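To fix ideas, we quote verbatim one protein's residues and fold tokens.
>
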Amino acid sequence: MNYHEWLAKGAPPGKGCSLETIQELPAEFPFFSITAFTNTVSQLRTRLGKTRYFSAPMTHASGAAFRQLIQGHLADENEHAKYTGFTQMYTADALLHNSLLRDTVLSAAAPGENIILQLCGNNPSNFLAAAKVLSSSSLAPQIIALDVNLGCPASCASSRGYGLYIAQNWPLVHQILSEVSSAQLFPVTCKIRPLGTIEETVDYMLLLALSGASGITIHMRHTTRQGKHAQSVKPAYLEFEEIVYAFRRRLDVFLDSIGKRKPTKREPNLYPVIILNGGVKSRQEADDLLSSYPADGIMIGVGLLKDPTCLLKNTPDTFEKCKTVFWIKETLKYLDICESLSQESVDQEDSLKVTPMAGYKEVVGHTMRFMQNVSAKRFNEPINKTKSIAELRSLLNKILCAQTSNCSS
């Protein structure tokens, strides 16, 4: 199929219409430039600097306060330069048309914090317009890259036709990435899941690179695998290795073919940045993967949600009966950051107010997850009944007082 015929099949779906399934590459990419490709990859690698660890984009769970908590722990070991956080997923259309959400997005980073901001949607023009809004905002200098979500399997993504559900229409994916990357406002990255076979995934990654993606995060979870099989660890990592090496070979062949030169072996830093996501719970696991597999970085989601200290080389040592004290203090530290970032109190009645942290729903969520480290579900109900950070702090201080006396006895 020639390029223009292929591209015509990527029109955004109308309301209530499903996307056409087109999972093949065109015969050529007439507008691809080796120079532009090399420059964007180099720009992203320069902006990332020493970053090797990334916190995942998680809805109502990856606000600025939580990222600053992680960053603060790493700063204690002088390793904060190795960490960058993704924001949660924001809809490009809503950023343009919802002033409250736009204010939320434009205050998504703490002062001095560099972020990768994730967008989702299925309209190339709106993606570009959203990127222009961001590039003209005061947040622009803090944005390392814009990440296009191509892997979200949630029902909201299915009903609205974005995330994992536009992966079935490669011409549309190409239009979104090429629209934003060709404007040269920010480096463009994307987050995907592996497709049905390694060959399909490699073709898809080639499409992403040739469309302007200078970085790809691969979440090594197949949506077709159910239950414990979806969480498989070692087999998924071995598959990741095979995918990345096959992708690099395919990219080499393509670049050499349009460059009309003999095949060459490129340095790893000339390829798009590859981030491995899935199942990592500790610094040791992350470092083992970085040394064993062809990944430029490791993304951690659930591991950090449960324990924001998990990226430390030397994890805090707590006695079993003093664990509750440790996690209450960790939560209070998080609340301190929330209040330092927010110029206004955050309460349940204004749950979307983000200045620049998340709403109270996220605050309660993190508190409960921290307390689950000591199986303290008995605290869930009183925590849920609080309506402000001040109330939550008061409750935690009462629990801390009781637990401290038990710990010292």
